[in-house]
Design brief:
By secondary structure, this protein is of the alpha/beta class. It has a single domain, classed as Alpha-Beta Barrel (TIM Barrel), CATH 3.20.20.100. It contains ten helices and eleven strands. The strands form three sheets. The protein has a seven-stranded parallel beta sheet with strand order 3-4-5-8-9-10-11. The termini are far apart.
């Protein structure tokens, strides 16, 4: 058993994955745009994920664009049968590196084919529909047409499972009346716990929740509180933040990203970090 195995597993539809995965976003250039500063280093990180037993990689063809998917293919193809690649569609990049919505049926269909081509796959394991109604986070609005488009691509055999990203509980409920949703990917961490009720609902129904930005949106005081706990446990703030997420609910699947092999190994040690009740109490108080 490796350290990552201590975190356990959960299901993504027909796939079973370890709860500590890897997010490939940071492998692209600055601002998630353009090629990496060090291509060999990026490839080394991806190959190390395989060596460490990671079997869940989160990516998107709009990272770069095209960059992370092409790196993943170069580093890991032919893929191990156990590897689950999860990608996202619903956005595109402008020539100025801006993030733009790409929601039409034609754009979503094209994005699925782009992911298939650049990853070198005949079918995508999981495709998350990324909603960008607001740049500030999840925002209400119907996503029925977009979900229907993904459902049709699923019927065509191009997409195995469907997930959602940057969505509200209302949108999740709406989508679940149309198709089977296997995961929801939103920002959630010690300082941003707006999805507590949604996580519990999804857990009861066996649906994965994939939090991103484990250290995002912390105030200086909140960061200090996390750092204090980390020092007491002889761990890094990231390790503590990840360990707290692992203990929050068994349906949480983590995808911390990094462009460093050393940081990758460091992050995975969160799987073996047990948080005592006193530490959990201090961490729970961070959100206020």
């Amino acid at each position: 058993m490796t350290s990552i195995d201590h975190a356990g597993t959960f299901t993504l539809g027909s796939r079973t994955v370890k709860r500590l995965g890897y997010g490939a976003m940071q492998l692209a250039g600055p601002g998630v745009f353009g090629p990496p500063k060090d291509r060999d280093a990026a490839l080394a990180v991806l190959r190390e994920t395989a060596a460490l037993g990671i079997d869940h990689i989160d990516t998107s063809d709009f990272y770069g664009p095209h960059v992370t998917n092409q790196l993943i293919r170069e580093a890991l193809h032919p893929y191990a049968d156990s590897l689950t690649l999860v990608t996202k569609i619903g956005a595109k990049r402008g020539s100025d590196a801006s993030w733009q919505p790409a929601y039409s049926p034609a754009e979503l269909t094209s994005a699925v084919h782009d992911n298939l081509r650049n990853l070198g796959r005949d079918v995508l394991d999981v495709v998350n529909l990324r909603i960008m109604f607001s740049v500030h986070g999840p925002s209400e609005g119907s996503i029925a047409e977009q979900v229907d488009t993904l459902a049709e691509l699923q019927k065509q055999g191009l997409v195995r499972h469907i997930g959602l990203s940057n969505v509200t509980p209302t949108q999740v409920a709406q989508a679940r009346t149309q198709v089977e949703i296997v995961c929801v990917q939103n920002m959630y961490n010690l300082a941003n716990r707006h999805d507590d009720a949604l996580i519990d609902t999804l857990a009861a129904d066996g649906i994965a929740y994939v939090p991103f930005f484990p250290l995002g949106g912390f105030s200086p005081l909140q960061s200090d509180a996390l750092s204090d706990v980390a020092r007491q446990l002889d761990a890094t703030p990231m390790q503590v933040a990840l360990a707290w997420l692992l203990q929050r609910s068994p349906n949480l699947l983590l995808i911390p990203g990094t462009s460093s092999v050393a940081h990758l190994r460091e992050n995975l040690k969160a799987a073996t970090l047990t948080l005592p009740s006193e530490a959990v109490g201090k961490l729970d108080a961070i959100a206020g």
